[in-house]
Amino acid sequence: MDVSHLLLTSVLFLLPFIAQVSAQQPGCSVSNNKPSVEENNPPGYNVTTIDLEAGFTASIDPSSSDASYFTIEGSQLQLVKSVDYETDTALIADVVCRDTSGQTNTLEIIVSITNLNDNSPVFKQTSLTITVPEDTKVNATIIPREDLSASDADLDIIYYELNSTVQDTTNYFAIKGINNPEIYLQKQLDYDKLNSTTLFLYARDRPVSRKEITHTATATINIIIEQADTKPPWFLPCSFIDGDTSICISSPYSGRVNISEMSKEPLTLDPGPIYAKDPDYTINEKIVYSIVGGNVDNTFSVDADTGNLTMNKAATSPDSYLLQVMAAQVNNKQKYSIVSVEIKVINKSDNAPYFEPSTYTGIVSVGAAPKSLVFQAEDPSSPLMIKAEDDDFPDKFNPNIEYYIKNSTNFVATRDGLILTNVNLLSPETVIMEAVAKDTVSLQEASTIIVVEIVFTATDKITSDKLYTAQDMGILGGILAALLLITLIFLGLMIYKHYGTTVKFLINKKFSKDFPESYENQAYNQDEHPDLSAKEQKSSENGGITELQQPSFFLSSSKEEIDGLPKTSTASTVVFDVEEKEEEENEEEEVKEDTKHEKEVKSILKTDRNEGDHGYKAVWFKTDVDPDAGEKVEVIKDNASDYDDDSDQDLQENEEEEDDKDDHHRGSGAAEVMINMSRTASQDSIIV
Q: Per the UniProt record, which residue ranges are transmembrane (predicted)?
């Protein structure tokens, strides 16, 4: 063991030196004696460079196994043809170095071929067809892995993907994994929903997410679903539930027999004879019938093959029979269905109903709404009514008769025999239909013909452009409302323009009646209106009710407006508080002093002279001045505009003082007196 280990260690130690010796021979050498070349190279591809000493030449040994792949051009070792990794993974080039004396040395160069992704995956079968039973278990294998695996000459890992051109079929089938193409069933099959599909299996040598060059192979798989015997029989007619064709609910059957009478023929049932079928119609197993309940006294029997119901004996009781009939598959009794059959026992009907007239004629207008009456053609004011008679009844009226229209959906018949429209009739035409009268007890029927003329009436000839909808009426109403509003605004403006002054006067008048309180300077009122008696002034000072005569002049009103104003106004009664009484008395004394002072002022506007009074001064109009007055008369120059301005200013100051006094009266709770008058302008007191 120690010797062999030592020998192996020695060989590994000497291997680099041996490689160096093989890469370098006397006269020629290469830098790398193991170069690599990618497959699918073009002819003339340089593999490596041979370094030659002087006097030496290099050539390919023709006896070497791979000599046909190489050639030497100058000092370049070249490939003569393209190489394929899938054919050769490595090539050996034997280079012979020869000097001028004829001595030779051999230089061995090993060329490795690099594999490229230049091959696509390959399926064993590119097209498969397989049959899958409908009752195949979920998760069962449909196609095994070995039948679907693809190979790749580049020995790449294969990535698989399953898809389908038929919508919603990929939910039924799937592959085990991205690297495992085995197909299995992942959802229960239903032949009524899916009976065949086509799948496509893709094999790629690179994942889809990678951006490298990818080669793809496709296999087409045709799957045919084979119907299995999975459903029990269905009695017809039946109705599907919510569009699901795998479940169908049957309706019960019904029939009638005469009491104490045995029918030898198969009974007539409604909605039809007893019949069941295998819903697995591609299998269509044979079905047998039997009565499993409700057959009192074994009165009835059913044919096992046809399902026809017949009587074994007469019914002696008026009670109805409720039979239970079973339909089962011959090959599997566990697949069965049961339906109920009601047989009513009635008294015998000797006569079938009939119509006395064979044809009825009616008329209806175009555009008649559904459920409109059809009228008699001979008497358009009377509705059309059909009537079937029955000789089994004394008055020939059978209350068990119902009417229906057999071959037209545009009209219906009521239980009383009235004919009504069932749709909106849009065009004139002639409708011929069959009306049926059916005895709901004996199931006997009678029929007649009804001819209805659909015609235009006088009202139908009104053209469509003269008809207005509710929307049109609403638009018209909106326009009229807008016009009315504009008219009212215009009238209001005109009234305001022509009667605005009068309206404002009336409003002020009304306002003065509603709010009679006002505040006036008592001394000023007494001076301006000397016709007030001392008694009235005293009453006013004591807070009593005072009547003031209306002044006879208004600066801002016409004579007609003055005549319309009230002549007197009543002062409001004021209750004084004890705490305010002293303050009010002081104010009254001040008013008395002002009044006394004003009484002492004499008028200075005179047209005569009083020369006897040396302290007397008067103001005369310029036109009345005596030219002989001399220096005793001073003539004031005419400067009316300045005087007017001063007078206006004085007037404004006086009004502000009066307003302040009024505010003071309001705050102290003094008596409020309103006088409906207009104050005279102070500028008229002096005229120069």
A: 473-496
- Find where tokens 């109705």 sit: 239
Q: Which amino acid is at 289?
A: Y
Please report which confidence band the pLDDT of residue 640 belongs to, taking 50, 70 and 90 as the band edges: very low
Which of these, 379, 396, 394, 372, lies nearest to 446 by C-alpha position? Answer: 396
Cα 5 to Cα 2, 16, 18, 19, distances in angstroms: 5, 19, 20, 22
pTM score, two decimals?
Answer: 0.48
- Residue 666's nearest CA partner among 676, 674, 677 is 674
Q: Which two tokens stand for residue 667?
A: 């705050």
In whole angstroms, what is the distance from residue 578 CA to residue 245 CA? 105
Cα–Cα distance for residue pair 663/348, rounded to 1 Å: 114
* Alpha carbons 672 and 574: distance in angstroms, whole number: 7
Q: Which residues partner with 413 through β-bridges?
A: 419
Residue 398 CB neighbours (<10 A): 21
Q: What percent of the chain has pLDDT over 70?
A: 68
pLDDT at 149 over 50: yes
pLDDT in tens, 150-193: 999 888 899 999 998 877 777 899 999 999 999 999 999 999 88
Q: Which residues contact 353 (CB under 8 A, 6 or more apart)?
A: 388, 389, 390, 398, 401, 437, 438, 439, 444, 445, 446
Q: Residue 588 in contact with residue 541, Cβ under 8 Å?
A: yes
pLDDT tens-digit profile of 290-334? Answer: 999 999 999 999 999 999 999 999 999 999 999 999 999 999 999
pLDDT band at 613 (very low <50, low <70, confident <90, very high): low
- Helix, coil or strand: residue 621: coil
Q: Alpha-carbon distance 492 to 460, whole Å?
A: 48
| Phi/psi-derived region of residue 298, left when phi > 0, alpha when psi is between -120 and 50, beta in every other case | left
pLDDT digits (tens, 9 = 90+) for 245-294: 888 999 999 999 999 999 999 999 999 999 999 999 999 999 999 999 99
User: For residues 672, 677, 679 and 685, what is the CA-based torsion angle, rounded to 10 degrees?
Assistant: -120
Which residues are CB-contacts of 132 (< 8 A; sequence separation ≥ 6)?
142, 185, 189, 223, 224, 225, 226
d(CA 106, CA 30): 12
Phi, psi of 380 (to 5 degrees): -65, -10
Task: Provide the CA 314 distance to its chain's centre, in angstroms.
Answer: 66
Residue type, 591: V
Query: Residue 519 and residue 672: Cα distance in Å, rounded?
Result: 5
pLDDT tens-digit series, residues 536-572:
444 444 443 333 333 333 333 344 333 444 433 333 3
